[in-house]
Amino acid sequence: MLALPGISATIDTTAVVDQMVRRASSMGFESWWRRAESVGFCAHPIQLTGTDEFGRDRVVWTRCNNRRAQICPSCSDLYARDTWQLVHAGMAGGHHDIPVAVADRPQVFVTLTAPSYGPVHTAVRAGDMRHRVCRDHHHIGGYRRCPHGKPLWCNITHHEGDTHVGRPICADCYDYAGHVLFAWHLPELWRRFTITLRRTLRRELRASGVDPDTVRVSFIKVVELQARLVPHIHAVIRLDPRDTDNCGGQEWQAPVTATELATTIQQAARTVAVTVTDSTSDAATQVIRFGTQVDTQPIDNRSAGTESRAVEEDSSQVRMLAGRRVARYLAKYVTKSLADVGISARRISTEAIADLDVTDHVRAILTTISQLADRGLAGIGRWLHTLGYRGHITSKSRRYSTTMTALRERRATWTREQRLKNAGHQHGTDFDSTGGDDLVAWEFDGAGATSLGDRTLVHSAALQRIDARRIGLMEVRRQARHQHWDSPGGRDG
Question: Highest taxon of the source (predicted)?
């Protein structure tokens, strides 16, 4: 059976191919193709209509700017690249009006996970020779069984992509209520963590004789779903001088090192908590905390401009990550969505849970959310489509680096200048550089492709452009490495 990009396997591909052929053979194909190319082959473009000052009807397309790769590969790829710029600008500086001085400030890469709500199937990582099977009975204390009689061991080797990875060993033992409550209260838990971190840092600075008002904490965080479908946080936390703006670039001697900052982060993450009271019982309370696996790794930006090892060992055996690798790691996760587990980006109702084509683990999470909503947890029923998580995927402190808006405005300005330059070259020196689009009152006319055939053509073109860009980037890096090794004074090959 023919597989088409962006098309579900349940759809008849014959009809879609016919639509593609009709579009490609139509008289207006070139005009339609140029319009699709003008928005980077966005799979769900926004159509706007308006009338200019001369009474002419105008139609333009604009990007959907959706971060989810399942919905729009083109906008998702652009969102990931913007996220890389956002993270790297705040880590290494030197671009987007961020001074290079930020690279020398204490920075820590933090991972905050959820506690264990029950044993789950795990995947064996490539190159990991310690765990050859999912749950070896030697590591769990023998052939033990849960109170429901199910074995707690698993002798199967699960690889990445295995549908069993992340599912509970015993669904009856798994604490689905705690799982959902952690996802629901994670934004508040993070807010309290940042407050606790600042307060803890102030106490330590005051105890060491440093004025705490001279230091500011900046951060950027990205939320990712683990295989068990509970969210966890990756963040970069940086110390800045309070009296110097990011655009200043003055030299500043940090009162603590990155390793000392990592220790303070560990302390704050292990003490912060949110106490939840069951609305149906005043006596029933639950404390929401981060898991015990709090990972803090100082960042070394001295190797940020090279392709050297991502992990180094310093004298205290603390891993030092390079800034470019961290930015690449965070940007990789912002394009993921729940479409891989059968959940669309649109809101769903409680009545639709039984009809969803999802695993028993996903259905149990959705059912638990519905039950908590019935018990009085206000608002959680509206977040079924995010499995109870109500926060942003990406967020940052105000002064960490540039903004998504600034990046998009800069790109729009560059695109407009290039378009006017090309049009002026084609039409001569009398070309009007104003364009006239600013005088049009645009109105929403529609969104998305007119047919699945159009969507497939655009989807395929977007994937080809993404692959070509990545291949070109790899080639540029390869040539840069060769020039580095072959340069005078470089290392001998």
Answer: Bacteria
pLDDT tens digit sequence for 336-352: 888 888 888 888 999 99
Do the beta carbons of residue 321 and residue 311 sit within 8 Å? yes
Q: Residue written as tokens 């068990």?
A: 228
Are β-strands 319-322 and 295-300 bridged in parallel, bridged antiparallel, or unpaired? parallel
Element (H, E) at 425: helix 404-427
Domain boundaries, the chain: 13-70+408-486, 75-396
Here the tokens at position 337 are 């969505």
Structural contact between residues 358 and 91, judged by C-beta atoms closer than 8 angstroms: no
- In whole angstroms, give the CA distance from residue 434 to residue 325: 42
- Using alpha carbons, select from 40, 4, 30, 1 the residue that is nearest to residue 19: 4
Size of the chain in residues: 493
Residue 396, phi then psi, degrees to nearest 5:
-155, 160
The phi, psi pair for 277, rounded to 5°, reads -105, 130
What are the distances in angstroms from CA 278 to CA 78, 173, 270, 398?
Answer: 43, 20, 24, 35
pTM score, two decimals?
Answer: 0.84
For 65, 90, 346, 449, the CA distances from 396, given in Å and listed in that order, are 19, 10, 25, 34
Hey, what are 453's tokens? 């055939």
Element (H, E) at 446: strand 443-447
The rounded distance, in Å, linking the Cα atoms of 299 and 236 is 9
